[in-house]
């Protein structure tokens, strides 16, 4: 069965047929300023109704904990950031899991392995939500001297 796709997604999928919904969402969030404020395509009501669920986005943010080659973001630092910056922006709920990953340092070209925190948010895909997510990314990068925070955004059907 072919999924029902929202009109903006459908148009871009026709232009770039191999672009996944997740990649499209990331493109819309990380692209030019105008695209950053555009709503992220969400699952259609028709598809979600079949599962007795609502259309939302799932945003996963991957926060590295090293500063340089040492763990610079302690559990206390993370908890303070979560309680002071993330929870006030998303008071309805979120999930945090511990991770361990690696990435290529853009400045040195070397492979870096580090512990991480993975934040999962289920929210509306409206411009205000996307601004809140961008604020969290920018605050973390600035406070903890990070080159990047990985972000994945995808349309989902959610039922609680």
Integer-rounded radius of gyration: 17 Å
H/E series, N to C?
A: HHHHEEEHEEHE
Shape: elongated
In total, the number of strands is: 6
Largest pleated sheet: 4 strands, antiparallel
Number of helical regions: 6
User: How helical, in percent, are the residues?
Assistant: 25-40%
Which strand order does the major sheet show?
Answer: 4-5-1-6
Structural class: alpha+beta
Contiguous runs where pLDDT drops below 50 for at least 5 residues = 1-36
**DSSP strand (E) fraction?**
25-35%
N→C terminal distance = 25 Å
Query: What's the rounded overall pLDDT mean?
Result: 80
List keywords for this structure.
two-stranded antiparallel ribbon, 160 residues, alpha+beta, four-stranded antiparallel β-sheet, 29% strand, 6 helices, disordered N terminus, 38% helix
């Amino acid at each position: 069965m072919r999924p029902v796709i929202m009109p903006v997604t459908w148009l871009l999928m026709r232009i770039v047929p191999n672009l996944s919904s997740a990649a499209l969402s990331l493109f819309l969030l990380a692209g030019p300023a105008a695209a950053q404020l555009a709503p992220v395509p969400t699952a259609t009501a028709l598809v979600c109704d079949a599962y007795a669920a609502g259309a939302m986005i799932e945003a996963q943010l991957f926060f590295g904990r090293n500063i340089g080659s040492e763990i610079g973001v302690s559990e206390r630092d993370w908890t303070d950031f979560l309680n002071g910056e993330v929870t006030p922006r998303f008071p309805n709920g979120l999930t945090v899991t511990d991770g361990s990953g690696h990435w290529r340092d853009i400045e040195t070209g070397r492979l870096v392995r580090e512990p991480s925190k993975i934040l999962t948010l289920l929210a509306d895909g409206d411009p205000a939500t996307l601004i809140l997510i961008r604020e969290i990314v920018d605050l973390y990068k600035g406070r903890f001297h990070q080159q990047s925070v990985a972000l994945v955004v995808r349309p989902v059907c959610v039922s609680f």
